[in-house]
Amino acid sequence: xxxxxxxxxxxxxxxxxxxxxxxxxxxxxxxxxxxxxxxxxxxxxxxxxxxxxxxxxxxxxxxxxxxxxxxxxxxxxxxxxxxxxxxxxxxxxxxxxxxxxxxxxxxxxxxxxxxxxxxxxxxxxxxxxxxxxxxxxxxxxxxxxxxxxxxxxxxxxxxxxxxxxxxxxxxxxxxxxxxxxxxxxxxxxxxxxxxxxxxxxxxxxxxxxxxxxxxxxxxxxxxxxxxxxxxxxxxxxxxxxxxxxx
Length: 246
Ligand code: SF4
Fold this sequence. Notes:
- The structure is a single chain.
- This protein has a single domain, classed as TIM Barrel.
- It has seven helices and ten strands.
- The protein has helices at 54-67, 88-98, 115-121, 136-143, 151-164, 183-193, 214-223, and strands at 4-10, 14-19, 27-29, 42-44, 73-76, 103-107, 126-130, 168-174, 197-201, 229-231.
- The strands form two sheets. The chain has an eight-stranded mixed beta sheet with strand order 1-2-5-6-7-8-9-10. It has a two-stranded parallel sheet with strand order 3-4.
- Helix 1 runs parallel beside helix 2 (88-98).
- The chain binds iron/sulfur cluster (SF4).
């Protein structure tokens, strides 16, 4: 598997070079979301491991930067939860030495309570943090987390991370019919923690779960009127990453 790939076009990030610090199939994640585009097979764990050596990231990124011009951001994501990689700090350091592009991470927010991960997060220019539920019941049904990671831990630590983090802090919410009743609760959470951006998503890529239609997503979007939002059916995001330092 390619640890470094792209650049790819993303509705959230614009043009992005991807880094997959897990790079295994099936996925390794702290969740097993019912809509996961990687399928339902895989390992659900809360234990961090070494999956890919940081030297491999450096070599592949250097080669890609030589071959391909352009790219707007570098994003850690991939075949599972990127914060499960125990050498995440070393990987970000290698990437930051090779490029001046803003470096960010797509994470499911489940390990923000871990002090080592909080340290790693400080190295990023932007974080896109998943939050699909406003209560334990929906969280268990939609995200199917590792038993050690309850909803309260996730939400409390998203709030702490939002306060601590100095770069762009974005929330991403995947809407499907199973969490539509949590819209008001999620709006209230967004009003309280004031993310720099809220991405309102529904699974348009092949998934075990049906996406919501444009009409439903536009209606949800209106509920989030007090937050700065981007919705998946809208045009590509043009946010200027790394410029929202507080
Ligand atoms: S957090 Fe992401 S990778 Fe993990 S199960 Fe959910 S959608 Fe899949």
